[in-house]
Amino acid sequence: MEILGGLGFALFPLVIIVAIVAAAVAWSRREGLEGEREEDRGIGTAKRLYFYGATFVFMLVAGAGVVLVADYVLDDAFGPAAFGRGGSGSLALGVVLAFIWTPVWAWHRLRVMVFAGKEPAERRSILRKIYVYLTLGVTAALVAQASVELLRWVFGSQSFNGYPLAALLVWGGLWAFHWLTEEAEGQPTDETRTVRRLYLYATSAYSLTMLATGLSIALYLVFREAYDGLVDLPLLTRGYDQFGGDTMRNALAVAFVGAGLWAFHWLYAARDDAGSDVRQFYSYVLAILGGVITVLVATAVIVFGVLQWLIGTPDDGTAAAHFRFLPGALSALIVGLGLWVYHWDIVRQERAAVGEAAVARRVYAYIMAALGLGALAAGMIVLIPTVIGIAITSAREVAVGVDWWRDRIVTVLTLGLIGGSVWGYYWFAMQRRLAAGGDEERTSLPRRMLVYGVIGVGALAILGSMSHILFLFLDALLEDGLSLSMLRDMKWSIGIAFTSGLFVQYHWLILQEDRKATGESVAGPAAPRKSVTVLVGAGGGALVSQLEASLGGKVRVLRCVDANVGVPELSAEEIQGIERRVTDAAGSRVLLIVDAAGVQVHSYR
Amino acid sequence: MSRIWLFGGMIVVAALVVGSVTIALITGRDVELLPADSPEGVVQRYLLALRDEEYAEAYDYLTSDLQARCSLAVFVRRAPGTRVQDTRLTLDETKRFDDNAFVRTSITVFRPVSQFDFPLRSSEYTYERTYNLKLEDGQWRMAEPDWWCPPEPLSE
């Protein structure tokens, strides 16, 4: 059961990776970027699918069998005395799986290695690399889980169990074998390097999460002990060891394993990968964003707690009881800050060395602006009904105490301070970048998604809240019951409508400003982009890239297999001329035929 | 610049951890026993006996009525000894009314659901429990069980 559970745990994130890679491969094939030249076909797609898929499955089953056998042997040799050992079923199953499936796996694995030797194109095969890195990913996850269990035994929080050691030896051995053979084989193309990067950064992401989680729990336990000692609570009993006992041991086990896994993949294996888009996406959108969000949530908890003590209505009468959240908030704040500052430093160094992928930075900045805007809007939505309730007695909820408004004001202040600061910093930083980035910044997808998202969500909120307000008003009018007490039911909708109106109006003006600056038509939609196909011979990659940059999008590439077709050297003006001819072409589908003489532009249907 | 923040931050965190461990070791102590003749002292000794699985000792802290209703065997089966693990009880208030006393405590439970819980995700929670005691032969005794005791048989 543990093995099945471990497999399930390991497979899920890898399924996501595979889905992403499969989608990327399918997309790149559609665009013709990985053209199937004769010399690239290798052993053929059908054979690849069989051998790589089957080898992966056989490895899992055979490995599970060997683990079951090793688990039984280790338990028998070193485990605690069992009351009626009932594990012979698992031994029998393990023997069957190991003896039948291991030779089958071994034969297939040998064939896979022979393919790479006989067909050089196999080393460029994405399916091969998906198989290798899926194997590495699954075995790494199983090794991580087994290592945590083993460390828990070493630290004394659980009794000896043969499974962790067995799993570590078997899956660890398989991981090492596949890693070493893959290092020797290498990744000769961009696509195969991308598959490797996806594995490295996915593994770095979850191992970093393990490290951060374990560390934050350990810090929390230490800070909690210190806090309890400082405030000198009148303790009657304490049912656990100092510094948390088993909980601390478990947290340290998770932290150590996460640290080891992360250090190997991030510090060692990915050390020379500065500048790749996947790395920058990982750095900005996972690591830095994760760290920043953790810091903001922890800061909000602290700010709320302090303000509630000062001006709100705390649930606990004593400061010692009220501020018990501080150890948890502080530990999360420290870990979040560590993630943020470390990865920010890395990104700065790499930006200086190899430049920056603007996309990753934009996505990060606009996500932060959206989160800040959300918090700020939430604060305003709470503020308005609170002010109405303070000003108009009949608008208050029934049976509330005189201090009902205090905690609301604390909430407003917390959300306003944190949300306003975050939104102001990131939004206006991106506004300042417009001057440098020009049209590309203004028309970037993350910016458009934020602006249209705010307008769309805000419009829905306005419609919904105005409908509610109007309904209440008309209902009271028809019932001859118009009075200020209607505000009791209406005030939240008033808050939503007012806040949404404010932000929708602001972002609408931003949208108009962006359109005016980029020369987009305000009255109607932009002209539809044409579907462009380029027929080009060998060595035409650079020309294709120039055409894509000029046309503002990807083109479909057909590789011409005729000999000596040639590729012309075109100037920037000539490229722009081709772009104009494409735009002026009669139809929506355009074919560009490239040869040594130049580029012909044809419309087709 | 961010590198300076990083190293500076690491030094601050290390200092915080060392300071916290020092404070915890200095102030950390076995729980101080309250006076045995006080209601809160009796509650404390009762709970400590349960924590240490000294069920006979804990049983002695019950009133004679309770002992008549529940035998030691039932008490051992039903008493929440294991629930004292992973918890901390702090004394909030004691109120006395003639021969009765009410001891209000806060019970904090820390039990992460999985090894991947963050501290901010409420794996620790606190609730109140009030213990009712009665004065019997000059000694405070636990009058209401916090575990299920079979009801008295109906008299015919």
Task: Describe the SSE topology.
The complex is a heterodimer of chains A (605) and B (156).
Chain A: H1 2-30, H2 45-78, H3 88-118, H4 126-154, H5 162-185, H6 190-231, E1 235-238, H7 246-269, H8 277-311, H9 319-322, H10 326-354, H11 358-391, H12 404-437, H13 439-442, H14 445-478, H15 486-518, E2 531-536, H16 541-551, E3 556-559, H17 572-584, E4 589-595, E5 598-604
Parallel strand pairs in A: 2-3, 2-4
Antiparallel strand pairs in A: 4-5
Chain B: H1 2-27, H2 39-51, H3 55-60, H4 64-69, H5 72-78, E1 87-97, E2 100-110, E3 124-136, E4 139-142
Antiparallel strand pairs in B: 1-2, 2-3, 3-4
Detailed description of the structure:
The complex is a heterodimer of chains A (605) and B (156). Chain A has 3 domains: 1-188, no CATH class; 357-518, no CATH class; 531-604, no CATH class. The radius of gyration of chain A is 31 Å and the shape is flat. With 605 residues, chain A is mainly α. Chain A has helices at residues 2-30, 45-78, 88-118, 126-154, 162-185, 190-231, 246-269, 277-311, 319-322, 326-354, 358-391, 404-437, 439-442, 445-478, 486-518, 541-551, 572-584, and strands at residues 235-238, 531-536, 556-559, 589-595, 598-604. Chain B has 156 residues and is of the alpha+beta class. Chain B has helices at 2-27, 39-51, 55-60, 64-69, 72-78, and strands at residues 87-97, 100-110, 124-136, 139-142. Chains A and B meet through helix 6, strand 1, helix 7, helix 8 and helix 10 of A and helix 1, helix 2, strand 1 and strand 2 of B.
Keywords:
heterodimer, A: 605 residues, mainly alpha, 3 domains, 4-stranded mixed beta sheet, 17 helices, 5 strands, B: 156 residues, alpha+beta, Nuclear Transport Factor 2, Chain: A, 4-stranded antiparallel beta sheet, 4 strands
